[in-house]
Amino acid sequence: MNYQNLNETASGAIILKGARPLDFTQELTGERVKKYTVSGVQGWTYNYAAKPVNEEILNLLQNLSDEMSLVDKYQDLLNGEMVNTGEKRKVLHQLTRGQLGKDVVENGKNIRKFYQEQQERVYAFSDKVHSGAIKGTTGKAFDTVVQIGIGGSDLGPRAMYLALESYQKITKKTQKMKAAFISNVDPDDANLVLSGLNLETTLFILVSKSGTTQETLSNELFVKKVLLENKLDPKKHFVAVTSETSPLANNPAYLDSFYIDDYIGGRYSSTSNVGGAILTLAFGKEVFAEFLAGAHEADKSAQEKNILKNPALLDALIGVWERNALGLPMTAVLPYSQALSRFPAHLQQLDMESNGKSVNRDGKAVAYATGPVIFGEPGTNGQHSFYQHLHQGTDVVPIQFIGFDESQVAYDIDVEGSTSQTKLKANLAAQIVAFAKGSPNENPNKNFAGGRPSSLLHNKKLTPGALGALLGHFENKIMFQGYVWNINSFDQEGVQLGKILTKAVLAGGAMDGALKAYADILKI
Amino acid sequence: MNYQNLNETASGAIILKGARPLDFTQELTGERVKKYTVSGVQGWTYNYAAKPVNEEILNLLQNLSDEMSLVDKYQDLLNGEMVNTGEKRKVLHQLTRGQLGKDVVENGKNIRKFYQEQQERVYAFSDKVHSGAIKGTTGKAFDTVVQIGIGGSDLGPRAMYLALESYQKITKKTQKMKAAFISNVDPDDANLVLSGLNLETTLFILVSKSGTTQETLSNELFVKKVLLENKLDPKKHFVAVTSETSPLANNPAYLDSFYIDDYIGGRYSSTSNVGGAILTLAFGKEVFAEFLAGAHEADKSAQEKNILKNPALLDALIGVWERNALGLPMTAVLPYSQALSRFPAHLQQLDMESNGKSVNRDGKAVAYATGPVIFGEPGTNGQHSFYQHLHQGTDVVPIQFIGFDESQVAYDIDVEGSTSQTKLKANLAAQIVAFAKGSPNENPNKNFAGGRPSSLLHNKKLTPGALGALLGHFENKIMFQGYVWNINSFDQEGVQLGKILTKAVLAGGAMDGALKAYADILKI
What we know:
The structure is a homodimer.
Chain A: H1 10-16, H2 30-35, E1 37-39, E2 45-47, H3 55-67, H4 70-78, E3 105-106, E4 109-110, H5 111-131, E5 144-148, H6 155-170, E6 178-182, H7 187-195, E7 202-207, H8 214-229, E8 238-243, E9 256-260, H9 273-283, H10 285-301, H11 311-325, E10 330-336, H12 343-355, E11 373-375, H13 387-392, E12 399-404, E13 414-415, E14 418-419, H14 420-437, E15 454-459, H15 464-485, H16 496-507, H17 513-521
Parallel strand pairs in A: 5-6, 5-7, 7-8, 8-9, 10-11, 10-12, 12-15
Antiparallel strand pairs in A: 1-2, 2-15, 3-4, 13-14
């Protein structure tokens, strides 16, 4: 496969020369809005009318995609090539939700089948918990599930849980169990979560692929100490999600253990049992299966080579244009849906941990900017907060809006002729146009220059399937951008140095002078 | 007063010429860590050893402060000058927690006294709620309080509530009432919050200075509809925090109304009754008074002209150096305390809404970068997420760490020779040094260039007083930066255009073609 740095490609060289931002302020007509749109799966559309692109730029981006064989590289990943070059691993999270490439077999083990078996084991376990066949120490059925994990074992599953909570909790369907999360090694986190729970009826899921994550193991022991103080038997209240080779595997300290492997990166693990155990326990296997089906459809659609028919690829390439031609270092993710309140935090990890890299897949320094900083909060809340900066600050921040026709729940109220959901949508439409077109005003304080680009991912409703497809969209977008930048989007060496220095502090031995001084300040 | 643009000052011109980032990688010794530190109030210290400054740069920043009379401008604000030039308003949030300047009197009304009277009214009301003298429709005492507000009426009070929740809930002191927040016009927000409450024993605080905020009024009616459906009398479950001239003032639809005025901006209102009502109801007046005292001490200490003795001023100026000399457009805020989980979201509003401006206080375009983008999540969580980008991404992002010797609660566990709190602190010390000094490695994937600047705000424990001082630190830091950039940090015209366009959509009449097309997509 033709792995090249962006600056070594003909299209990339043009992009990296830089460009004046296209003035789409006047160009943004109703016609353009209708034309610059692409249909995705599960009801999604990606609208890029308010992005600084035109036919010429889109042609250039198509050429870049072809020249760099972006879709062929994706196909290689699906076929089980070792694309995580740093850690020498395959990248197989797509196999947790379906199969699109060849069979991936290792030591006689079909990986897709392995993931499916583990899913089925979680489904069967959840059924037993829901039916009351598996109970806690005192013989009461479990009604609450708490995930103990950090990073990818926390942010994705938490964002997905919150996204489905409104849909499940308030619609006719009954949520099977309520859920909570403990992540931070700060003991205040575990203390606060536990203080609100009935421990007798609470099941804990310990999630660590390696089985050695410091924060997670500390929180496990923290929770077990509290269970014991409450005369509850920890091994009747704990299951583990881990790899088969971890110390947590097949361990009598847990009711059961469910397995993943090294081919599923933490931040890509929401569709594995890392997300699957808690989501299935909370909402039931049917809901989780719908979620997986949505993600699988997104994976399938990302194989399209025509960028104007592949939302993930097009979104990725427009992002590259903004980052490398226009030099914009940030992107705001703004969902107009309270259910997606923590989706930006998940994307922040997914994108920044994947593409915040300075060396290419062969370990050579890259000569161009890679992944942007990602941040965001739900609208309309953000409108009353940091949007001021996005509208009138001295920097241009590209925006990714997400919006829906309908709220999660039908219950709504009509005030001054419109429902809350209609107001939410009216605000969204207004913001897109305000950012793009601006508005001249004699009062310079009230003058808006416009020219602030945004895109809109739109759907009818945030169903489990739509959520899965949304997740798949961003996972695949980020992968395509990684290919463009010729980096390895699937390792994360950036956290290692901190771990080594942390150990030095905890060992209390020979420390660098500065480290010792900071340890002293913090009274360690 | 000598209001000048940054580029019109001698020191500013030097800064704006730009500078190569100082190589403090080698310079960061234990000695430097001990030297580059300044004591604040309420136990705070601000350590800037890992910031890219040296004696020469600090001298330049002192000159800038003197040349621009930054502390004198602050004194003018305290004395009631009309520093919000756009809206022609005084800026008096400091008066909600004490008085440092002259009496501010308007139409015979002493503003400090007015704020105090309103505080006392909230205290008296809270006492009656806590004692059960004021009850709900069915005669049951209130045990829950819900704030309905958005932007500054939500983010600050919510962040402060979460910060104090662990401290109060788990220590021996009993929390008076539990609290929740409804902000988004998305009906899923109100639905989800209400679904977890016993409405009989819930008191709602409606917060809108103007009394006309669309989201807040929609949510008020939403909640009232649900109360009526539950046969509860809304006027026995609602109080308002608003201005005396708003339609919510002195209105029989509420149990009572508490007043603020136009001199308290939304994002600066946590120490007014916007924060005071819910925090006093939740934790009692003694806790809120401690919080105010901490903020007042911070205000007092910000009057020091020697930048090496004024943490807020020094923090502000180092930020200016990073923004305008080094050209860094973002800042990450990373508290190593779960209790501060939403403090970065509050700071994001406080900073970006205040200083995300492109025109100066006289309405002329500025020729330099103003306020940065702010984002952040608590550590250690962020270490397992976006820190990869901060360590090895192609952009340098300055960092503001916040850390404590002790957790909120004493309950902890010893694992492998250290408590969770000790691990938390060891991680913090390790990260500061890892970012600053990096680490060479033959494997380019594991190589860390270092040179990534950070500062540390440190305290023994996050008490109510320490929290107030921390809030005051950032409010004053942002104010000083606004003076350096010669902008008005106290208006927010950037949200107005969206409001106008939203009304156009809701009116359904003549709309710009693009707006109509987006309204069609969203099926409005």
